[in-house]
Design brief:
With 83 residues, the protein is mostly helical. 63% of the residues lie in helices and 0% in strands.
Length: 83
């Protein structure tokens, strides 16, 4: 009888539930989108200067998306489960 109780008490449960994983996926998607928006703008000719590196997309939008994504990841980790 004691062994049965011990096995029930030792049942493994996941730390995160489905809702946590959904929020983690949303955060990861925003982080990835931010880094994709930051990429590019290079030139084949190293002597040619391109003003594209100073666009609003690369300076403001992409870093903001990355920071929001990281904030969502922190929220997803700290989200209480329904136990």
């Amino acid at each position: 009888m004691g062994e049965k109780k011990r096995k029930e008490a030792a049942k493994q449960s996941f730390v995160f539930e489905k809702l946590n994983f959904i929020w983690m996926f949303i955060g990861l998607t925003l982080i990835t989108l931010g880094f994709i928006l930051m990429a590019g703008g290079g030139s084949n000719d190293p002597l040619l200067f391109s003003e594209a590196i100073f666009s609003i997309q690369r300076i403001r939008v992409a870093p903001t998306l990355v920071l929001i994504g990281f904030a969502i990841e922190i929220y997803a980790i700290l989200l209480k489960t329904k136990q």
